[in-house]
Design brief:
The structure holds 2 protein chains of 2 kinds. In chain A, 0% of the residues lie in helices and 50% in strands. By secondary structure, chain A is mostly beta strands. Chain A is globular. In chain B, the strands form 2 sheets. In chain B, strands 2, 4, 5, 9, 10 and 11 form a 6-stranded mixed beta sheet that branches. In chain B, strand 6 and strand 7 form a beta hairpin. Helix content of chain B is 0%, strand content 59%. Classes of the chains: A mainly beta, B mainly beta.
């Protein structure tokens, strides 16, 4: 089936540790996005990429990094510089101007 | 910065009643999309309405768009318990290749 796969579903991070969230899509979409959602809140854009090897910062990029080496993959690294990383992370993709499709999300908790 | 703002923040109605949610935005858009999110899950796309459209239907869903007032509404008719979820509007601002979400409306359908 076509879609967006995020892994892992649940991830725990120790203080000072970097962690990477995976996002893979087989929809042949050019654009991919990472959003953060805090409990009871809306989605905030972290990074987005319109084409391979290019990406732009969203509204809350500090403490995060991404890469886009392949069209189907857009991993997000939560670095130790992100002081409050506990949240729900959502990956999405689309062909620009059209419907954005979301993965099932990843829960990140600091322990 | 938030582009879309939903109103009300929370809505509780009886099963079978209609539910109306509103979304306002600030700048000119290419399109506006409505999404549903069940607790702890990814977002499910409901309807995309383009800036040159005024109304769209999909099953029990009706979306209107008033670009002069920079607002949209989502109507769910004959509500069911399964409609309990959070509903978000997202706007694709002209000149900006990203989708910006509001804070959402939490809809509860009481049996």
């Amino acid at each position: 089936d076509g879609g967006i796969t995020q892994s892992p579903k649940y991830l725990f991070r120790k203080e000072g540790q970097n962690v990477t969230l995976s996002c893979e899509q087989n929809l042949n979409h050019d654009a991919m996005y990472w959003y953060r959602q805090d409990p009871g809140q809306g989605l905030r854009l972290i990074y987005y990429s319109q084409i391979v090897n290019d990406f732009q910062k969203g509204d809350i990029a500090e403490g995060y990094s991404v890469s886009r080496e392949k069209k189907e993959s857009f991993p997000l690294t939560v670095t130790s510089a992100q002081k409050n990383p506990t949240a729900f992370y959502l990956c999405a993709s689309n062909t620009f101007g059209n419907t954005i499709y979301f993965g099932e999300g990843s829960w990140l908790t600091v322990v | 910065s938030q582009q879309g703002e939903e109103d009300p923040q929370a809505l509780s109605i009886q099963e079978g009643e209609n539910a109306t949610m509103n979304c306002s935005y600030k700048t000119s858009i290419n399109n506006l999309q409505w999404y549903r999110q069940n607790s702890g899950r990814g977002l499910v796309h409901l309807i995309l309405i383009r800036s040159n459209e005024r109304e769209k239907h999909s099953g029990r869903l009706r979306v209107t768009l008033d670009t002069s007032k920079k607002s949209s509404s989502l109507l769910i008719t004959a509500s069911r318990a399964a409609d309990t979820a959070s509903y978000f509007c997202a706007t694709d601002a002209q000149g900006a290749q990203k989708l910006v979400f509001g804070q959402g409306t939490r809809l509860t359908i009481n049996p």
